[in-house]
């Protein structure tokens, strides 16, 4: 693994949380030699399983994602906030092992959580064909014991009415040579009174097996629970002092929803916990940035329970005594000069493949062939990047000659199929090329015909989408300077909280992904329309 920058001498410095800003939940942290990796959930977005790399736990660089092909995961038809849940990255016997869940549903007590395992000698691949594991529950993870055996842990889901859907943490042996699960699955932990026990990770230290789980749900009551046993199959006793980490009951904290943790040991024997957090715009308010990744220092004397100082997520944490290793800063502007998309971009429900994305047809342009409507779940054409700050903007220049009202290209502030804002070029009935604005709030669309702009016959049009705290604003440039559309749109509808919907006690929709800024092209008539984007600039305050 190339380091790109020579390491600097270690100095007193801090980890500033969150270390991964914007939509980066359910972290699995791993150290291999001097390299640290964070794998995170991606749900309906490609590349599946976000991957970041560090040498000092302070500076992180994106490596894109691991699951980049339909061979590894097919997200066609994937529902909002379905898809890749809670990946687990481990290293054993000269191979990286990645387990990930492809969750197909969460309605009426069902999840349909198919689990897969892939391996690679290098974190950059190539990755093996997936081994199909069980579908007993999501949040599956591997544990490699000191005797050479490997075990699969997961939530044991229970679909039966009147039962606890979170039926406990189960374990089953995985035969690496035969690439299959063997023996019976056993429940080893039913959780604490916090309930909703999920996200297991298992460690062996000082003669104990240590089981780390997430409890309380992934919102305000989230927590990290630790239990231990002398034996692999238990019984496991939870720490009698309570959770290792939580922000429950502390609305004053900047970092909320603290939970779903994973431990890592440094080269010097220090321990750290990677976990998810969220930053609401107001106390216990909407979290437009989604669930993010933070890191806490863990004190873990031999044979004793691990603790996080204060038991709550800290904004800054002492960094390990490692050489500082910053990475080159990402340019604000992507000129689309490379053969593939930058690692900062994600694509919705289909990989960034040349059947709809083209970086070679015009040098320094991204050509996007139009896809389905906002509700289409098979072939949408949306290239987007995570919103990582309360105040940020995406600017681009597009060349687009729509034939009629069925062809649209522009910029979007996006959450999911039912919550988004979109400024786009299209063709009016009278033949004019126009800019129009459309919003969608829980599936209810709002048009702004009074804001329609005659785009004229100029080839190039500048478009901008900007987050200003709880407000989204759009702007355009027809060659005579930037102008803002005179309307403030609600940014908080692009949040996990707003997207979640419970009907008669059952979840009708969940929100797990956070907001995006993106380039969106629709060809609703399937007539072969495409748009060319000259560049895209992302800036944040």
TrEMBL record:
It holds the Pfam family GH43_C2. GO terms for molecular function: hydrolase activity. It comes from the Bacteria. The keyword NADP does not apply. InterPro entries: ConA-like_dom_sf, GH43_C2, Glyco_hydro_43, Glyco_hydro_beta-prop_sf, Glycosyl_Hydrlase_43. Keywords: Glycosidase, Hydrolase. Residues 333-539 form the Beta-xylosidase C-terminal Concanavalin A-like domain. The keyword Hydrolase applies. Belongs to the glycosyl hydrolase 43 family. This is Glycoside hydrolase family 43 protein.
């Amino acid at each position: 693994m190339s380091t790109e920058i020579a390491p600097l001498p270690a100095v007193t410095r801090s980890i500033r949380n969150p270390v991964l800003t914007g939509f980066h939940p359910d972290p699995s942290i791993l150290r291999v030699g001097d390299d640290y990796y964070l794998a995170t959930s991606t749900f309906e977005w490609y590349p599946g399983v976000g991957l970041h790399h560090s040498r000092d736990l302070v500076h992180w660089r994106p490596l894109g994602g691991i699951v980049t092909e339909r061979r590894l995961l097919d997200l066609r038809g994937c529902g909002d906030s379905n898809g890749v849940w809670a990946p687990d990255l481990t290293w054993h016997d000269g191979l990286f092992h990645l387990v990930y869940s492809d969750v197909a549903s969460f309605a009426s007590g069902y999840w349909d959580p198919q689990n897969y395992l892939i391996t690679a000698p290098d974190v950059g691949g190539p990755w093996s064909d997936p081994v199909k594991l069980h579908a007993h529950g999501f949040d599956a993870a591997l544990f490699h014991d000191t005797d050479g055996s490997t075990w699969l842990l997961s939530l044991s889901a229970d679909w039966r009415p009147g039962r606890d859907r979170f039926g406990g943490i189960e374990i089953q042996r995985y035969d690496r040579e035969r690439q299959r699960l063997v023996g019976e699955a056993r429940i080893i932990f039913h959780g604490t009174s916090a309930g909703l026990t999920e996200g297991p990770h298992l460690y062996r230290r000082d003669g104990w097996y240590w089981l780390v789980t997430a409890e309380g749900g992934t919102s305000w009551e989230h927590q990290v629970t630790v239990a231990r046993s002398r034996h692999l199959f238990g019984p496991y006793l939870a720490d009698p002092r309570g959770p290792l980490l939580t922000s429950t009951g502390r609305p004053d904290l900047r970092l909320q929803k603290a939970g779903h943790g994973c431990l890592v040991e440094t080269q010097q024997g220090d321990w750290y916990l990677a976990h998810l957090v969220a930053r609401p715009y107001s106390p216990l308010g909407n979290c437009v940035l989604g669930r993010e990744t933070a890191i806490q220092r863990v004190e873990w004397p031999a044979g004793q329970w691990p603790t996080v100082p204060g038991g709550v997520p800290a904004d800054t944490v002492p960094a390990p005594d490692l050489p500082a290793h910053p990475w080159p800063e990402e340019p604000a502007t992507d000129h689309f000069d490379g053969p593939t998309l930058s690692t900062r971009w994600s694509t919705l429900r289909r990989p960034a493949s040349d059947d709809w994305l083209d970086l070679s047809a015009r040098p320094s342009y991204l050509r996007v062939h139009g896809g389905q409507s906002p509700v289409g779940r098979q072939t949408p054409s949306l290239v987007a990047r995570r919103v990582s700050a309360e105040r940020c903007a995406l600017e681009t220049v597009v060349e687009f000659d729509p034939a009629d009202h069925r062809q649209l290209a522009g910029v979007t502030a996006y959450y999911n199929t039912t919550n988004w804002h979109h400024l786009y070029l299209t063709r009016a009935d009278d033949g004019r090329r126009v800019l129009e604005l459309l919003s969608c709030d829980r599936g209810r669309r709002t048009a702004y015909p009074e804001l329609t702009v005659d785009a004229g016959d100029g080839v190039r049009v500048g478009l901008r989408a900007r987050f200003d705290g709880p407000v989204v604003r759009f702007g355009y440039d027809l060659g005579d300077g930037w102008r803002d559309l005179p309307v403030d749109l609600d940014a908080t509808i692009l949040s996990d909280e707003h997207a979640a919907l419970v009907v008669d006690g059952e979840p009708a929709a969940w929100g797990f992904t956070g907001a995006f800024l993106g380039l969106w092209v629709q060809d609703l008539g399937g007539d072969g329309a495409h748009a060319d984007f000259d560049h895209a600039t992302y800036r944040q305050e």
